[in-house]
């Protein structure tokens, strides 16, 4: 994760940057410099940190005034560059006042990478949902271990060649290298939970699909929502099936979560995403995301008029070339779409003589 990669794990392969952003109202036309801090609402600061990926080279973090100190929402990846930027913020933005709480929207390393470091440095509690905290701990514990039998079996059933299986084995277990050791306890976030930050009420809204229990933070008084990767302005978040839950249906979860956000957020709310520039126009963007995946499902169903392997459907889902750098994500997104159609009763799956799953429309 700390080396250059072609595709960031937060970013879907199902489409390039789309033109729905022209329907949105952004708070600025300028891309802030790495390490910058911008106040977007009373006591809410937008921090921009670099990422060591070629396709998604930044993450937005958030620092909120919190009584005598600060609350941090997401932490950046666990590298020296990010630590040094935080040290600058401790002095210039925070005036050496303490970080009272560290909240991570979800488990991915660009969001949790320095959670353990910040919590230890300030003796601050970590706030996460249960599903995100424990899966993060499990993935970190895999670091340095050989690829499990279940993972090898999963990718063989997908249609991977033996050469591709060997590449999976070589890449397995790198999650923990991108994060500092997580705290051994956490404070659980739950859907609908209310809390005060700097005297203002904030509500937790949990979504799913990109990760198991992704937490967004919404303040009706400030009319602002910190959405992490659950709602982005220019790209669609990665939605994949992984070997840890091969029968999962994260795409249906994702579509349902988009409808939920549309129900719970006003159209003029200021969306503060993990990637891209804060914007207004949440309902338009959510409609676009829902439509994007529903159209992909229609194309896939038509393509499955004949039996297909998961590795044979890339052409109808992706506009990018699939190679060793993004193959794991590509097959994960493919199975997410196939499992969604299967869950809707539109396709059936069987194991062929080669021990691979094939899919065909009913």
Features:
362 residues; alpha+beta; Metallo-beta-lactamase, Chain A; 5-stranded mixed beta sheet; 10 helices; 22% strand
Description:
This protein has 362 residues and is an alpha+beta fold. Helix 7 packs antiparallel against helix 8 and helix 8 packs across helix 10. Helix content is 32%, strand content 22%. It has a domain of 253 residues: Ribonuclease Z/Hydroxyacylglutathione hydrolase-like (Metallo-beta-lactamase, Chain A, 4-Layer Sandwich), CATH 3.60.15.10.
Mind describing the biggest β-sheet? 7 strands, mixed
CATH class of the domain at 19-146 and 172-296: Alpha Beta
Strand order of the largest sheet: 2-3-4-5-6-7-8
- The shape is globular
H/E element string? Answer: EEEEEHEHHEHHHEEEEEHEEHEHHEE
- Total number of β-strand segments? 17
- What is the CATH topology descriptor of the domain at 19-146 and 172-296? Metallo-beta-lactamase, Chain A
The H-level CATH homologous superfamily of the domain at 19-146 and 172-296, spelled out, is Ribonuclease Z/Hydroxyacylglutathione hydrolase-like
**What average pLDDT do the residues reach?**
94
